[in-house]
Design brief:
- There is one protein chain.
- The protein is α+β, with helices and mostly antiparallel strands.
- It contains ten helices and eight strands.
- Helices cover 53% and strands 22% of the residues.
- Strand 1 and strand 2 form a beta hairpin.
- The longest helix has 17 residues.
- It starts with a strand and ends with a helix.
Length: 232
């Protein structure tokens, strides 16, 4: 074991009949220590610190302590689980309040972790979310409603439905194009109710949005148009 002697670290003072006396104490600082598990000499920083006495280092190194703890958890998993459930029931309100405080303090950290997790497993997370929505449509509706009531403007900005509605044609069409559109719709009336005027590129598609112009229109059977929906 290696030692380091530091003199005059601690100063003791006392007074007798008005006279002040001073005394210095010499400390011996240990630099290395032998682990009682692996019996290897290691630096003092690699030993486990005592929680009650921060300055005191124990006789077990950190790797040995971690290994022993893992084995203990495996041996006593059921007993620890029962104790944890009991503790959670008794201290539910306290734990919930502490968790809320931690979340409020570390909002940015949580967001960063969620983004990283989503980037790594994007397909798996999206698939699980779709399955959950299909199984629990009522819960999803309730969640959307509460989110909308909290901040309607933010919900409209982020919602895919409102994004589709915003994709509207704002260009003013000249009279010649308007006349061509009227001719197409008149032609459809002469052909009968079994035919529809369809947009080749949908106005509110999932990935693309077309325009309401003559070169984006076609007259097709009603069944074909209804089966096509807004796909492109």
């Amino acid at each position: 074991m290696a030692y380091k002697i530091d003199k005059n670290i601690s100063l003791y003072t006392w007074s007798v009949q008005g006279l002040i006396y001073k005394k210095y104490k010499t400390f011996i600082e240990m630099q290395t220590k032998v682990c009682c598990h692996c019996l290897k000499e290691k630096p003092i920083q690699d030993m486990v610190k005592n929680k009650k006495k921060n300055a005191y280092y124990g006789g077990v190194c950190k790797p040995c302590f971690a290994k022993e703890h893992r084995e203990y958890v495996k041996r006593n998993y059921k007993a620890r689980r029962k104790w944890r459930l009991k503790y959670d029931k008794e201290k539910h309100t306290m734990l919930r309040a502490a968790h809320k405080k931690w979340v409020e303090k570390n909002k940015e950290h949580i967001k960063a972790l969620n983004r990283e997790r989503y980037k790594k497993d994007k397909d798996v997370i999206s698939q699980k979310r779709k399955e959950y929505i299909q199984k629990n449509p009522d819960k999803q509706k309730k969640w959307c409603k509460t989110r909308y009531l909290k901040n309607p403007q933010k919900y409209k900005e982020n919602s895919s439905i409102y994004c589709k509605l915003r994709r509207k044609q704002t260009v003013v069409l000249p009279q010649s194009i308007k006349d061509q559109l009227k001719m197409i719709y008149r032609k459809r009336i002469f052909m009968g109710t079994k035919y529809h005027v369809d947009h080749i590129v949908p106005l509110r598609g999932k990935n693309v949005s077309g325009l309401h112009v003559p070169w984006n229109l076609q007259i097709i059977p009603a069944k074909e148009n209804l089966s096509k929906n807004n796909r492109f």
